[in-house]
Design a protein that fits this description.
The protein is α/β, with parallel strands linked by helices. Helix content is 28%, strand content 25%. It has 13 helices and 19 strands.
């Protein structure tokens, strides 16, 4: 039989979460962000669940082509734009919308030969300091684009650095609103956090929101809010099995580095999951885990192919017991991915994207 570790994608939960994002967005249109292979879920697996979106947003031309091949005829937005001039040929052929964030991309458009003008979103660097034109240079970039016959409609896009934190979005929002005040075109500035927290503000939700992590069952501002408070559902479950048990006496240690020492007699389960499967090595003793739907803890150091869990709270658990590393146990018990990510000092996004190719993935 295959090694007992499976990632299950819950497509009904993806569909529910899209509806939740649309509810928060009110009258705005919704981009379903499917970059990084739909945050590790698989574009093909979640496509049907996301058909109710108004458009798809992603990074790679290859992923855009996959969405078109699945039958999508609506808008597709390249969030980082094109990476070299010849990419514009594929944009023309596939009808892709694309961000423009630098002078070079404008130069490439000016030299591009196309019969159908492109729909673009001019990106503003409103304080994130990754991509985009500063407010001082934004309008001159718009004027260059607006003069090109290769360009049809020009929209506007920016990205918030602190939508999920105490600083908030106010400083960036004011820069964006002031700079684009009298320019025509659709606007998209809200990520998942801004949509959930400030979607009731028309200046924040604008014409489009970009629903990313909210679609995939992780809270964008955990631990301030959990998925239960945002009424979103987990979309990925990582499940393994107990493949051995060990009975420890006081003073016995577990795993590499002997980081855990038993202080009383106890039984541990050895589980068919390790960091080569994408489970974070930084998770230490105390990281939550479900065994047969009962919450318990990881003990010792995660190794490449195995980890150990405390079976003390789980009556009758032994060889073959179901271990839910995150997501939804067969009993219905939930372990939000955000709790595991917090124990690893990271965020749920990384765990989703890091599930290794050797893990079997199924959709239900």
């Amino acid at each position: 039989m295959p090694r007992p570790i499976v990632a299950t994608i819950h497509t009904a939960a993806v569909q529910h979460n899209l509806a939740r994002a649309r509810q928060a967005a009110q009258d705005a249109k919704v981009w379903a962000v499917v970059k990084a292979n739909a945050y590790g879920h698989g574009i093909e697996r979640v496509f049907d669940a996301l058909r109710a979106a108004d458009g798809f947003a992603l990074l790679d031309l290859a992923e855009a082509q996959r969405v078109r091949e699945l039958g999508w005829r609506g808008p597709i937005l390249l969030l980082e734009g094109v990476f070299e001039p010849r990419d514009l040929e594929l944009c023309s052929r596939l009808g892709l919308w694309h961000a423009v964030h630098c002078d070079e991309q404008i130069d490439w458009l000016a030299a591009h030969k196309t019969q159908v003008p492109h729909r673009v979103f001019l990106k503003m660097n409103s304080g994130m300091n990754r991509l985009g034109f500063t407010s001082e240079r934004f309008r001159s970039a718009w004027a260059r684009l607006n003069a090109l016959p290769q360009v049809d409609e020009i929209g506007f896009i920016t990205h918030f650095s602190d939508a999920d934190g105490p600083r908030g979005i106010g400083h960036q929002l004011q820069i964006f609103l002031k700079t684009t005040e009298d320019l025509p075109g659709e606007r998209t500035i809200s990520n998942s956090a801004a949509t959930l927290l400030r979607g009731n503000d028309a200046d924040v939700r604008c014409d489009w929101v970009r629903a990313g992590i909210v679609l995939y069952g992780s809270s964008p501002d955990f631990p301030q809010h959990g998925i239960d408070q945002w009424e979103i559902q987990p979309t990925m479950t990582l499940t393994a099995r107990v493949i051995a048990t060990q009975h420890l006496q006081p003073g016995d240690t577990v795993g590499y580095g002997s980081l855990f020492t038993a202080d009383a007699p106890m039984t541990i389960g050895v589980v068919s999951c390790g960091y080569a499967d994408g489970y974070p090595r930084h998770c230490g003793t105390g990281t939550p885990v479900l065994v047969n739907g009962v919450r318990t803890r990881l003990v010792g150091r995660v190794s490449m192919d195995m980890l150990a869990v405390d079976l003390t709270p789980v009556a009758g658990a032994g060889m073959g017991a179901e271990v839910t590393l995150w997501g939804k146990a067969s009993s219905g018990a939930l372990l939000p991915i955000d709790e595991v990510a917090q124990a690893a000092g990271t965020i749920g996004y990384e765990l989703m994207c890091a599930v290794a190719p050797r893990v079997t993935v199924v959709a239900n």
